[in-house]
Specification:
31% of the residues lie in helices and 26% in strands. It contains twelve helices and 19 strands.
């Protein structure tokens, strides 16, 4: 072929290339949606960092998301929009190589968006949070703390959730699902107890920031915050359940330090804006009230650890301490329970069993009840029952009648007499009335 022919072909290809639109550099390779009680979260997984602009429109209500130099390589039609204010999601190309996503709404909302840079646990993401607007006027009501015989409030926190699955085990076992199951079992047990009100920090597959979990516990005016997790480590041989409290100085072991770093990085995966960070944390920790809170956390945690010891092997025989961000409430005793190593094949099998999860929940519940039965907050029904000699205690695995009598500082004979017992045999789940000491 002649040189002229090659030149003509090259000219044609160049001309075609110049006439084609530019190809976007960044791609949206996945879109995920979660529904929380007060908002809907949509996460756009990106192949790289991208700049975006958020626009809200009315009549009808719409949200417009423009993402520069980005193309959509996944389908939006598969997103589950039920129980969300979103009636339809559509997309298109804007100004040649920009992505435009339009969300048609059934009600007015408050949207917020932010970009998250890639880290060692997740890639670049664009997060859109759509907050519901409560149309009902707030009612002024008496707070739970004002009642003379109020219930003890237990804030139950299932770790991780939503786009943050937590640790993973064999057979696609996910920490977020395991701990939510255990947390719900704990909730069920406390609902059956007189004098207690359980409050779930999350009750579905959605993410709550670490600070948001503490804020919810404070909103509920909780007497205790218990966070449920499943441990993981690089070595499969690592095993055992643990109970942790906060440390303001340093971790009590290398494992505790490693675990705290892993759990504290959850916000990097769950997605938290810089404005959500607690800049005053150092000052809060210096508050004198923290001393009493930490002391209660350690002692209460020890009661829980002793009960857990009847269900699972312990990683450590004492309550450990580390700088867990989720435990940093200066006014609420807080513990974190690692229910086993999901990275250990044997313990992963246990965590995948409903029977084991129910046993673990019962142990955590029994330890908490044991503490509050002996140290009820003033003004609560449990405190009134203890003073009146009508305090109730539910028998847990490993309990003995003599041990219960010693724990509550009453004589064995009086305990038997109060409950009409002619022997010392007791059963798990049996309720005892503890006489006033």
């Amino acid at each position: 072929m002649s040189t002229k022919f090659y030149s003509l072909v090259l000219f044609v290809w160049v001309s075609i290339g110049l006439s084609l639109p530019a190809v976007a550099n960044i791609q949206v390779h996945d879109v995920r949606l979660w529904r929380a009680p007060d908002h809907t979260r949509i996460v756009f997984d990106l192949t790289g960092p991208a700049t975006h602009k958020l626009i809200t429109l009315e009549n009808p209500h719409r949200i417009v998301l423009d993402v520069e130099d980005t193309s959509l390589k996944t389908k939006l039609s598969s997103l589950q929009l039920k129980d969300t204010p979103i009636s339809r999601i559509r997309s298109g190309v804007r100004e040649g190589d920009d992505l435009r996503v339009v969300l048609d709404l059934s009600a007015a909302v408050k949207p917020k968006s932010f970009e998250l840079k890639a880290n060692d646990r997740a890639g670049d993401r664009l997060v859109l949070d759509i907050y519901d607007i409560d149309s009902k006027p707030a009612k002024v009501k008496k707070t739970v703390k004002q009642s003379s015989r109020r219930n003890i409030i237990i804030a139950i926190d299932a770790g991780h959730g939503g786009e943050d699955p937590g640790a993973s085990g064999p057979g696609r076992l996910r920490e977020k699902n395991v701990v939510l199951s255990i947390a719900r079992e704990i909730e069920t047990l406390f609902k059956a107890d007189s004098g207690y009100t359980p409050k779930m920090i999350r009750n579905g597959d959605y993410y709550v920031s670490l600070k948001g979990r503490r804020d919810l516990a404070r909103k509920y005016q909780a007497d205790l915050f218990v966070s449920v997790h499943a441990d993981a480590f690089k070595r499969k041989e690592a095993h055992g359940a643990s109970v942790y409290a906060l440390s303001t100085r340093g971790a009590t072991s290398t494992a505790a330090r490693y675990l705290a770093q892993r759990e504290n990085s959850a916000d990097l995966v769950g997605g938290v804006r810089l404005s959500d960070k607690d800049d005053m944390l150092a000052g809060v920790l210096a508050d004198l009230s923290m001393t009493s809170t930490l002391d209660t956390s350690l002692k209460l945690g020890n009661d829980v650890l002793r009960k857990v010891d009847n269900v699972a092997k312990l990683h450590k025989k004492r309550v450990e301490q580390a700088g867990f961000a989720v435990l940093k409430s200066p006014d609420i005793p807080s513990i974190l329970v690692e229910t086993g190593f999901i990275s250990n094949p044997t313990e992963a099998k246990n965590l995948g069993s409903r029977t084991y999860r129910k046993k673990m929940a019962a142990a955590i519940h029994a330890g908490i009840v044991q503490w509050f039965a002996a140290h009820p907050p003033s003004g609560t029904l449990i405190a009134w029952q203890k003073q009146a000699g009508g305090q109730q205690y539910v028998i847990a695995s490993g309990d003995t009648l003599s041990g219960i009598a010693q724990r509550f500082n009453v004589s064995l004979a009086l305990l038997k007499s109060q409950n009409g017992l002619s022997h010392t045999r007791i059963q798990v789940g049996q309720k005892l009335t503890i006489p006033a000491s």
